[in-house]
Specification:
This protein is of the alpha/beta class. Helices cover 45% and strands 13% of the residues. The strands form two sheets. A seven-stranded parallel sheet has the order 1-10-9-5-2-3-4, with helices on both faces.
């Protein structure tokens, strides 16, 4: 498409979506037919020049949220409606609500811990700028290879640094290393030690729960070999928080992994006073139930379908 045609397509699309002109009026102004206007608008959308989003945040299900809060003794529960039955759409709507909640509860001078994963990557894209001062954002667990997890471990740290003018701190090492001795040596490195010490001082944590299966990022990264994976299953592990695995009751069950991890231990994570969990998808119900029972969740932001599955347990 030549430049003149491209400019006309964008001009027509702008008149339709921004100026809210009818296709007939646009056709008259541009001296083209109405079908041509329609084709150009559709082509602009297919080419990625037009992005449409719908905000469902005002539809939060307060009745379901209250049931969940009362059943589990949570400080707060926020439930995103499942308007469109598409996992990615549900995840995005949940993360938008979570981002709005963060702007309500996060305060200046906080030390905020965050983890990585698919949910955190989505949440990072939803973080809105807000006036805050003196915030420090720290990574709670080490990295995974970029070739395994395209989202990278730094998305939430970078997003919050940009949105809040915060200071960001990441762990420059893998989440899990080959043996306990290597992990102990890395913990003595000044750069890694300072980040882990800062993580222990967190006044808030933003995280999701991870599923224990062969398709998880931890498995694909090679952190869970066959023997360890089977051992976790035998001990009743259902999922993890920041690379720390727990069972249906929220009890840590990763003794073999604990000494090899470069992350905040679950017992220290539990001490953080404001633990904000963001989760979407009914497949996380059992894991989320364990995380709440284990005392790892204070505020929950979840989708409607996950919320109802949680109440069924």
């Amino acid at each position: 498409m030549n430049r003149n045609k491209l400019m006309q397509m964008l001009r027509i699309t702008g008149k339709y979506y921004i100026q809210h002109m009818s296709q007939k009026d646009i056709a008259d102004e541009e001296n083209v037919s109405v079908p041509t206007v329609s084709r150009m608008i559709n082509r602009a959308m297919e080419s990625g020049y037009v992005n449409i989003s719908i905000d469902y945040s005002f539809l939060t299900d307060s009745e379901l949220a209250e049931e969940i809060r009362d059943k589990y003794g949570l400080r707060q529960a926020i439930i995103a409606p499942a308007v469109i039955s598409d996992p990615q759409a549900i995840l995005l709507d949940t993360c938008r609500m979570a981002a709005a909640h963060l702007n309500e509860v996060l305060e200046s001078d906080m030390i905020i811990g965050t983890a990585w994963g698919n949910t955190m990557k989505c949440l990072a894209s939803c973080i809105e700028p807000a006036q805050r001062g003196g915030i420090k954002v720290v990574q709670l667990n080490g990295r995974v290879p970029d070739i395994v997890a395209a989202q990278g471990a730094d998305d939430m740290v970078k997003a919050m640094v940009a949105a809040y003018g915060a200071e960001g701190y990441t762990i420059p090492a893998p989440a899990v290393v080959d043996d306990a001795r290597t992990a102990a040596l890395l913990r003595e490195d000044s750069g890694i030690r300072s980040v882990l010490e800062l993580a222990e001082q967190c006044s808030a944590a933003i995280f999701s729960v991870g599923i224990l299966d062969r398709d998880s990022i931890m498995s694909k990264a090679g952190f869970l070999d066959h023997g360890l994976y089977e051992s976790l299953l035998e001990r009743g592990a259902v999922g993890d928080i920041a690379s720390g695995y727990f069972d249906r009751e929220g009890r840590p069950v990763d003794q073999d992994l604990k000494e090899r991890r470069l992350s905040l231990p679950l017992e220290d994570f539990k001490k953080i006073p404001n633990k904000i969990c963001v989760a979407a998808g009914t497949e996380k119900a059992v894991i989320l139930n364990g995380a709440i029972r284990g005392g790892y969740v204070d505020d929950l932001v979840a989708d409607e379908e996950l919320g109802r599955a949680l109440l069924m347990l």
